Automatic annotation (TrEMBL):
Pfam families: UDPGT. InterPro entries: UDP_glucos_trans (IPR002213). This is Glycosyltransferase. GO terms for molecular function: quercetin 3-O-glucosyltransferase activity; quercetin 7-O-glucosyltransferase activity. The keyword NADP does not apply. It comes from the Eukaryota.
Length: 456
């Protein structure tokens, strides 16, 4: 009966144009579609999702104000600046597009239930209010991080930065389990420029009809309760649904499938998978340190080197021929991997990651312990949970040095300490897996969300 009612309802989704935001939005689209809703995805020209991979959804592209040259240079540009620019330019095209969808629905039997968009859009609450359409927020971070949005300006103003070495490992009293040394990478070059952005996000979220998290009670029950108290809107934690709806179909880059036969030729749990996601950049010196660390570890590795990852380089040119030869003896380098399939492969025993929330969840879902090398923002917090709270990984503490990398890889992959981490990861994986199974916390939350969308 409820399923029948949902059949006459359409939900409009609007992801932020980043791989780490598109993946969870399209997973949500799949979840809602499987519950009977029709789906329209409005998207920017920049990082447009591949419509052909989702024939059951309607895709509508809007102008984002970026020039062809800006789009071409995006892999090596500052992504935060691009997003700020799009946030300024896309409001009016978005309003026109959404208005058109609503007008069309007036003439059809199918009604639009609500807009669901990323918490990083600054204008969507105003637009949806002007069109009298309820709006829900998809938060692609861990709830603990989003909960800190209202307090981040206060923490910044407290002046923990610059920090004396003696206090580096102290916890941030307003934001456990973060350590004071993590703060400089959260505020980065933006500093106080972040405050107005955070304020708008908090305000518009509080005016929204609810928050959806790709997370679950098993990972952060208290944070989810707190989120409800802070933002005073309904909260739905519906993840991680990776095993049901893979992120692979929403990949913006071509995935190098030769990884899989290469992994097939490796021993069980012997390979360390290395990827720093779609946005993080490293310097040439850091790149060479990682290369030497992996080579010296003597452990097989699969390394994703995204074009644009290394600042000032197109791809792997900073590696000498000799180093490439020695890397190829034990490892494989690709530009982009089918990450979920890789993590699920029996040969993969560890993940050297930047701890983006998607990568962290995917690793937990596949029970792969991590080496944490966060690059900034929420990654600083995710990595603390991985290493200090759940204890399912080792933290490099920002030391991108060959000896440290070699030591961490060997510790995780061959030493007894690594075995203990692996056992803890197995327990966490099983708990999280239960949440999405029939009757589990996320499973129930999806049901509640579906009924809530019906009621809007
Ligand atoms: N990913 C992938 N292939 C790669 C590296 C990453 O498919 O070689 C996917 C990964 O599975 C994840 C997303 O890209 O779903 C990255 O999101 P995350 O939140 O981890 O990091 P971000 O890229 O946003 O920093």
């Amino acid at each position: 009966m409820e399923e029948e009612k949902r059949k006459g309802l359409r939900v409009v989704l609007f992801p932020l144009p980043l791989q780490g935001c598109i993946n969870p939005m399209l997973q949500l689209a799949n979840i809602l579609h499987s519950r009977g809703f029709s789906i329209t995805v409005i998207h920017t020209r920049f990082n447009a999702p591949r419509a052909s991979s989702h024939p059951l959804f309607t895709f509508l592209q809007i102008q984002d104000g970026l020039s062809d040259a800006e789009i071409r240079d995006a892999p090596t540009s500052n992504v935060m600046s691009l997003l700020a620019q799009i946030n300024l330019s896309a409001e009016s095209p978005f309003l026109d597009c959404l208005n058109k969808v609503l007008l069309e629905s007036k003439d059809s039997s199918e009604k639009v239930s609500c807009l669901i968009d990323d918490c990083g859009w600054l204008f969507t609450q105003t637009v949806s209010e002007s069109l009298k359409l309820p709006r829900m927020v998809l938060c692609t971070f861990k709830a603990t991080f989003f909960n800190a949005y209202p307090t981040l300006p206060l923490i910044r103003a407290k002046g923990y930065i610059p920090l004396p070495d003696s206090e580096a490992e102290d916890s941030v009293p307003e934001f456990p389990p973060l350590q004071k040394r993590d703060l400089s990478k959260i505020f980065g070059e933006f500093g106080e420029k972040l405050d107005p952005f955070l304020l708008v996000v908090v305000e518009t979220t509080m005016n929204s009809s609810g928050i959806i998290y790709m997370s679950c009670e098993e990972l952060e029950k208290d944070s989810l309760t707190l989120s409800n108290e802070i933002f005073r809107v309904p909260i739905f934690a519906i993840g991680p649904f990776h095993s049901y709806f893979s992120a692979a179909s929403s990949s913006l880059f071509t995935q190098d499938e030769t990884c899989i036969p290469w992994l097939d030729s490796q021993e069980d749990k012997s390979v360390i998978y290395v990827s720093l996601g779609s946005v993080v950049n490293i310097t040439e010196t850091e790149f060479l340190e990682i290369a030497c660390g992996l080579s010296n570890s003597k452990q097989p590795f699969l390394w994703v080197i995204r074009p644009g990852l290394v600042l000032g380089a197109k791809w792997i040119e900073p590696l000498s021929e000799g180093l490439v030869r020695s890397l190829e003896e034990k490892g494989k380098i690709v530009k982009w991997a089918p990450q979920q399939e890789v993590l699920a492969h029996r040969a993969v025993g560890g993940f050297l990651t930047h701890n983006g929330w998607n990568s962290t969840l995917e690793s937990i879902c596949e029970g792969v312990p991590m080496i944490c090398l966060p690059g900034g923002w929420d990654q600083m917090l995710n990595s603390r949970f991985v290493s200090d709270i759940w204890k399912v990984g080792v933290h490099l503490e920002g030391r991108i040095e060959k000896k440290e990398i070699e030591k961490a890889v060997r510790m995780l992959m061959v030493e007894s300490e690594g075995e203990k981490i692996r056992e803890r990861m197995k327990v966490l994986k099983d708990e999280v897996e239960r949440s999405v199974k029939h009757g589990g916390s996320s499973f129930r939350s999806i049901e509640t969300l579906s009924n809530y969308l019906l009621s809007l």
